[in-house]
Amino acid sequence: MQHLEVIAPTGMQLVEQRSASPRLPTLDGRTVGEVWNGVFRGDETFPVLRAELLRRYPGLRIVPYTEFPFFPGDDRPHAQQAAAREIAATARAKGCDALISGNGA
Amino acid sequence: MRPAVEAEKLGLPTVTIATSGFTVLARTLARASGIDGLRIAEYPGPMGIDTPATVREKIGARVVDAVIEGLLREAPGSAPAARAGAPSDIVLRGDADEIAREFAEREWTDGLPIVPPTMARVERFLAYTGLAPDAQIGILPAANLRAVPLNVAANAVMAGCRPEHMPLLVAAVEALADEHCNLYNIGSTSALVPFLVVNGPVVRDLGIEFGGQLISRGPNPAIGRALGLMVRNLAGFRPARNYMGTFGYPLPFVLAEDPSTNPWPSFHVEQGFEEGDSAVTVGVTNNWGPSSEPSATLDMSAAEVALELLCREIPKKFRLYDFPTIGPKAETVMVTLVLSPPVAKLLADAGYDKRAIREHVHEHARMPLREFEWITHHTFPRGVTVRQRAQAGVLPPEFMGAPDDRVRLLKGPEVVHVVVCGDPNRNRLMSFEGGHTVPTTRRIVLPPDWSARLAAARR
Which of A33, A55, A92, B75 is deepest in the core (most CB within 10 A)? Predict the structure, then answer.
């Protein structure tokens, strides 16, 4: 068969990558925030998760999802990014050391 | 996932809870936003069908451990999935079979045979644009990859397009890259298939079918396939990774209008273009068909039946329930009404223009509140009922009505779009619904010597 040389059909990567933030040494004495996007039963899963985390780490403080801005279904890119940034800033303002985000499917 | 990405950028460690099969999606989207190695806690299986007891058991037994590990244990970073290098780089050498096999291995194809994108073939396509081969056409979500004429042409070659299709495909990529189009969320499990609507003189120039069986004839299938390959390779949507349609996807397709069979201004004229402009619109749909056949009866005109059929079909489209479920902050939805020329003519003869059709459908596509509450409660619970949202003022008062009251399903007439095409001898209509994406139109810029090139291409 004929020998061919081809180029790739894929787009070129533009976004600079950075690694995720360093993890915590322990959850004892730390504050963790919850973010719920309003779907996939977060109102059921977060209370269960919260109780179990507090059982294992009595010194842990949890800021429940009800204290964060609602992350709505508005799917316009600028709206989603603005909402996500507001949530991250809220986590900082409320003294969170970490964040749990759910639920994705 | 998005709040987690923004929190990571602020230096906060995060864990995102996602169900099985969606961990790759979350990591892929995070990488596209600049965070490599997002930590995921996997909830096993589809959460929606689990009993409350099972949800508690899975969270307690599985998810909590993953959350703790994700917050405490460092994870090694992973290499970015997209390639580096120049778009003109030769990435593979071999015979056609070897290239086809390797392209399939790299998930660069849709599973069908391809034409190998050699530079000689690609250059024939590039000759139909006035752009430099590596000029940026756009940045395509969700992977935020850069599209240039070279990689657009490579996909077009692979799909079996002809070089003269290139201006149309470049315009389609511009539309895909537009933030207004919002390609970002089409990985939905509901399976959103992109499609094109082509308008203007280019339809006849390229022999694009606008009549009977149009999506299956002429160059329409190859152009539709190129659209699908570009969504895969330029936007980065890969089945089972971040393109998560539960049952997969039919091939993208191409519709086209022609003034000779359309009693109204063409689709692209409604988007602000002139009738003599050539333009292409990108849309998405969850489905294809069914196609009803309105008929005149003693008690109703065929036009009345056509409108009634459209209004009866729309309540069956679950994606459209998002607005009345959530309210103003709902996901975007779109409805495309596809009318065959005889149906369009009978509606026009009855005094309806496209605006009147849109308003009629918005007003009359309704279903009983009782039924709406049952379906939304049992298929996509959101923690707050429709009635509660209405009581809170998020939804219109009609959603607080009696169970048998018929409520409107569409946010407004503006989400309804009308396209006239198909068999000029059949009185059929169909409608399809899509979400997240807004139909986006771009002018097709033709080279100055377009007529001469077309003539040469036909010889």
Answer: A33
